[in-house]
Amino acid sequence: MQKVIESTDISKAFGSTKALNDITFSVDESEIFGLIGPDGAGKTTLFRIIATLLRPDNGEMKVLGQDCITGFKELRRNIGYMPGRFSLYQDLTVEENLNFYATVFGTTVKENYDLISDIYSHIEPFKKRLTGKLSGGMKQKLALSCALIHKPKLLILDEPTTGVDAVSRYEFWAMLAKLRQHNITIIVSTPYMDEAMRCDRVALIQNGLILSVAPPQKIRDGFSRKLFMIKASEKYKLIIALRKYPGTVTAYPFGDSVHVTFSDDRIDESLFRFLSEEGLSNVTAGETEAGIEDRFLELMEKGATA
Amino acid sequence: MNEKVIYVKNLVKKFGSFVANDNLSFEVFGGEIFGFLGANGAGKTTAIRILSGLSSPTSGEVFVAGINASKNPEEIKKQIGYMSQKFSLYEDLTVKENIMLYGGIYGLSKSLIKERTDNLLEKLNFREYGDKLIAALPLGLRQKLAFSIAVFHEPKIVFLDEPTGGVDPITRRQFWEMIYETAARGITVFVTTHYMDEAEYCDRISIMSEGKIVALDTPENLKKLYNAGTVEEVFIKIARPVNN
Known about the structure:
The complex is a heterodimer.
Chain A: E1 3-14, E2 17-28, E3 32-36, H1 43-50, E4 58-63, E5 66-67, H2 72-78, E6 79-82, H3 94-104, H4 113-120, H5 136-148, E7 154-157, H6 166-179, E8 185-190, E9 201-206, E10 209-214, H7 216-221, E11 227-231, H8 235-244, E12 248-254, E13 257-262, H9 269-277, E14 284-288, H10 292-305
Parallel strand pairs in A: 3-8, 3-9, 6-7, 7-8
Antiparallel strand pairs in A: 1-2, 1-4, 4-5, 9-10, 11-13, 11-14, 12-13
Chain B: E1 4-15, E2 18-29, E3 33-38, H1 44-51, E4 59-64, E5 67-68, H2 73-79, E6 80-84, H3 95-105, H4 110-123, H5 139-150, E7 157-161, H6 169-184, E8 188-192, H7 196-199, E9 204-209, E10 212-217, H8 219-225, H9 231-238
Parallel strand pairs in B: 3-8, 3-9, 6-7, 7-8
Antiparallel strand pairs in B: 1-2, 1-4, 4-5, 9-10
Helix pairs in contact in B: 3-4, 5-6
């Protein structure tokens, strides 16, 4: 299978800030590849290098078999890029923006309509509306339509779901899954761990370093200890008490519970006795499956102590 | 805990013929962490502007920290704190200058500002950063500082807009622990967010759709009620807007 992206030892610094450190990974054809990491991890810098908008300091970036520096002209015809910041013309109508992007790439809306119809049909009733007057969810759909209108082989989506409500996010991921039928490879970034499960493979990135690359289920399976979920009526007190308990290795709040690991990987009566002595009531505890975020926390901690 | 810090009864807000808030009624208690959710355009921002004294209701009763929002919106502003993930601190001022600015705006005396600044920097392990520009601080530290400054004047209630969006998982958890600690001191925390995993941390949540509150309960009860594994599933089941 042809590699759509091959990144080898890519590094990039801005002044004394190392944005990317020896980034090596590859993306296969027709894959949905997720880049998951917090703000400032280096996601946008990496995407700008892939999109031929920024040159790396070191390393080699090959996209669709071409070098990103020498082959940029050819590449730009085959890449669709949706930047994190909304960048369509706010003072053009929906229809005008779409026509503009089609024309720039030497095509027409009609020619590639089947590719965008699923997405564009949601906003087509508003095609005479100024883009600046659209809601967040509609802007996002228009931006995706414009990034697709020249039928790219690679679609680069930089945080497409940031600031968008949960319903629109859900619909957006359903659209991406459908695009796979058109043999479009997608690389998408997000700061939200739960979106990782929707990708074929994900790379966890933090401080310019890739911590792990694998299918999301494999990343979860990589969690090295038994994980327990503990609840009590007094949440904050519970966290403090668990950190005091001698057998605790880690204790992190997770929604309405605390995710805890113990040095002997089990819970016994002494824990319940301890928590009761600390004044906690309605304590429940049980083993739970680690999620992507649990594994990310574990990898970050290892990075911090290494 | 039973003090009603927010009391809203039959709140209606209209813009022309458009009903942005359609007969809202709810209460939030002292020391509670309350999640205020809804799709884009559901009417959350309108309601928060009223709760923070920036806009007045068309009809209905709204009391915040015991103050009538229709009669005394200016008084409300003194009793609340606000922090957003998008804007928080002045980047070209130092940590101490930012604290002094906010403390001054809320009318704290110089000596009180100094005393609380020392305590705050000590508590956050921030001593070395006191004279650094905000621009030089890592994002995680900035967010923690922004939150601390939002409650620096010891408000009755603090409004947080997507407080931990985009922050790394460790910082995020430290941040939520600060929120728990603040709530345990009796300050009410009112969180708005698009991210349903943030909602899971709240004591109770409400979900708005098309100007109305369509659900209000603890995350656990809502998950049971809608037979869902996560708050996100609950949200998708009931908050679907008509167009986009």
